[in-house]
Automatic annotation (TrEMBL), chains A, B:
Residues 1-14 have a biased composition (Polar residues). SUPFAM superfamilies: HAD-like. Its cofactor is Mg(2+). GO terms for molecular function: metal ion binding; protein tyrosine phosphatase activity; sn-glycerol 3-phosphatase activity. This is Glycerol-3-phosphate phosphatase. GO terms for biological process: glycerol biosynthetic process; glycerophospholipid metabolic process. It comes from Diceros bicornis minor. Residues 1-53 are annotated as: Disordered.
Length: 441, 441
């Protein structure tokens, strides 16, 4: 009965929202993992996720990791930072090495409440400095890279902007591959398939497998939404999804056996509200999936809510990004704006697939067998890439070629909001090209 | 930079949001009132709001009332309730008169925190019972009506559902008019002009002035948004508004001299994000107005945000209703869903005109010279109609012919959330036809 002014989605804090998404997705994911049986569902010839004992073991390990992280995610990051700082000659000298570090460390020292507790824990574990958001110098990069075997990269704003590669970025990734590092690409963008991303990576010089294995390094929200639906809709005969999104999202869903309806323009039909509600609905629609949809319309919003009133119909959002940055500071509205509209009309919270929901990391973890202590997350957004990395116990590098700035970092360090406190990276670089000297040395 | 997960609109509590809207609008309204000068702007022949000394006096009185209400809105309601309860034979007997009252009073007594404080104040001021949400029996209605001279009604769900009048409602309003009561109609619906509402009122038998004065009793969000823009854009040469809304909203804006662009369908132009952003913008757009827009589209969302990036461009939402109820429990998505999408993409809070923002009450107050102690708000929604009435110190009647139920009332009474505690009416009726016996006696 309530209007948006009293609707739950509208009034949740970021942390509440994040927690609710995470718990929803983990519950769904683990439950489904365990129910999928030893063989797991084979979907249209796509190899199933690792099934049976290994799969369950992974799930359980991932569950234990979650519990540890839930109980004190700090330990992971602290151990990672301690290692890095020791090799970097100690956090104190690192902090003293540059003006920005001094500002950031000062800000950290000035932080109140949980900030002070965190600083105290850091001092205890990392030798007198919490080492948060230190410029990743060449020597620190060498120390860090010696300590990790997997690097996960966001794409837009990190590897490229639009169709232009960040200068030096392809060379940096080529050098990382030459050093035997495993690379993964985690993107909230739902408008490309794994294969399309793999082609773009190769086209812009970032390498990666071609042929049948193309896309194996790519974890986009279109693909991961398909994994989620395959789990949640397991057992449903010929399930369908009403998709607010593009062809790529539909292609990934159909690859796991979920038929898609609603893709493309949906103009207003009829003369008024009653006739809008008389527009026919497809049978067997088990989920409404909201991705990036440039054809989003009021008619689609109404239809989505009508499907969501049917018993058991899932509401899934690929991500909650409010904006999609383009070149020169321009941007377009992001998928999150569309998810919010549907959530408010349906008075339901969507299950969110993309960063910072840890479901997308669980997808990588399932396929890569990740050890968080030896994994780095590199991204340009504090509220998605860095928050995901911190929450999952990864080391984190912010690159300044995209959305977030050092001012944003400082603001988060000074914030009293727990969820913002988590959005502070271990290191930052002007560009991932800054990794090159460490790799060429 | 933040995604929806950390955006302010998404994380505000209902009370924070309501306060921010109220303060924004009152500030704008009063500032503009005082700046409009003794004559006030005459807009396209429409008589200006009462201008000069009286207008300022009203504004100041309304400001003082706001301060009193802000400091302790309870006193207003308590006085009103005390009067009603004395005439109703005391709240205790009223509370004992019916099962529902007993449940609700018990719930109130069981309420914790501020609930207990409120109950204690009520006990002190109203003679042992807070008298909240008592069925409005014929004798209580007689007592109440003897004590008031103005009744403000919501329309959809109170007077009619769709095109069908609530049985007995026209007769009740006719009887109220015959008793010399002043009636006003306050609706969040932005899809009709004042005149169109006046015609519907007469067509369904609710009477009201015809001819030149038609619509003088109607305060819809299309009209009140026009009043707001006339104030906020005073002095802007030939201002324009980008309108996500229908012809009625545009007509009201143009009647106060604000030219409207964007009404009607706006299909996707171009092949991709860059070409979408290349679509030309109109010059001199000073405000983006989001109302009920069945032609809402992604292209409109992008354009709205581009206008909002221009210095000084206002963002105004007609209301935040999440749903627009139709007959038989059916509904369509409300304006609030569209406002939320724009707010999230623009990373700005909209100024909200409609209930429960008190701006719409100030519009009535300016034109009617309202005495809150002698005014009743009658509505079917706790989160808009009743919250507005309580906040403005009016007596409140919930009618059960629309959205909210007694279960919702109980839930609000039992809630620990201050903003929900305010969403409890003084009285309830099954239908406003229940007023008839008191009027015919």
């Amino acid at each position: 009965m309530s209007s948006g002014l009293t609707s739950c989605p509208g009034s949740r804090t970021p942390l509440q929202r994040f927690r609710s998404e995470r718990s929803t997705l983990n519950a769904g994911w683990l439950a489904a993992s365990q129910s999928s049986g030893p063989a797991g569902p084979a979907a249209n010839g796509r190899p199933p996720l690792r099934a049976g004992p290994r799969r369950l073991a992974l799930s359980v390990r991932s569950q234990r990791r979650r519990e540890r992280i839930g109980a004190g995610s700090f330990q992971w990051a602290a151990r990672a930072r301690r290692g890095a700082n020791e090799r970097a000659g100690g956090g104190a000298s690192a902090a003293a090495a540059g003006g920005c570090e001094e500002r950031l460390v000062a800000a950290a020292a000035a932080a109140t409440g949980c900030g002070r507790r965190r600083a105290a824990m850091a001092a205890a574990e990392a030798g007198g400095d919490d080492g948060r958001c230190v410029r990743l110098s060449a020597e620190r990069a060498q120390a860090l890279l010696a300590d990790v075997d997997t690097l996960l990269f966001d794409c837009d704003g990190v590897l490229w902007r639009g169709e232009t590669a960040v200068p030096g970025a392809p060379e940096a990734l080529t050098a990382l591959r030459a050093r035997g590092k495993r690379l993964g690409f985690i993107t909230n963008n739902s408008s490309k398939t794994r294969q399309a991303y793999a082609e773009k990576l190769r086209r812009l010089g970032f390498g990666g497998p071609a042929g049948p294995g193309a896309g194996a390094e790519v974890f986009g929200t279109a693909y991961c939404t398909a994994l989620y639906l395959r789990q949640r809709l397991a057992g449903a005969p010929a399930p369908k999804a009403y998709v607010l999104g593009g062809e790529a999202l539909a292609a990934e869903l159909e690859a796991v056996g979920v038929a898609c309806v609603g893709v493309g323009p949906e103009p207003l039909q009829g003369e008024g509200p009653r006739s809008w509600l008389d527009a026919p609905l497809e049978p067997d629609v088990r989920a409404v999936v909201v991705g990036f949809d440039p054809h989003f319309s009021y008619m689609k919003l109404i239809k989505a809510v009508r499907y969501l009133q049917q018993p058991g119909c899932l509401l899934v959002g690929t991500n909650m990004d409010n904006r999609l940055p383009l070149e020169n500071g321009r941007f377009i509205a992001g998928t999150g704006c569309l998810v919010r509209a549907v959530e408010m009309a349906a008075q339901r919270q969507a299950d969110i697939i993309g960063k910072p929901s840890r479901f997308i990391f669980d997808c990588v973890s399932q396929e890569y067998g990740i050890n968080p202590e030896r994994t780095v997350m590199v991204g340009d957004r504090l509220d998605t890439d860095i928050l995901l990395g911190v929450t999952c116990g990864l080391r984190t590098i912010l690159t300044l070629t995209g959305v977030s700035t050092l001012r944003d970092v400082k603001s988060n360090q000074e914030s009293d909001c727990m969820s913002k406190k988590k959005m502070v990276p271990d290191f930052y670089v002007d560009s991932i090209a800054d990794l090159l000297p460490a790799l060429q040395g």
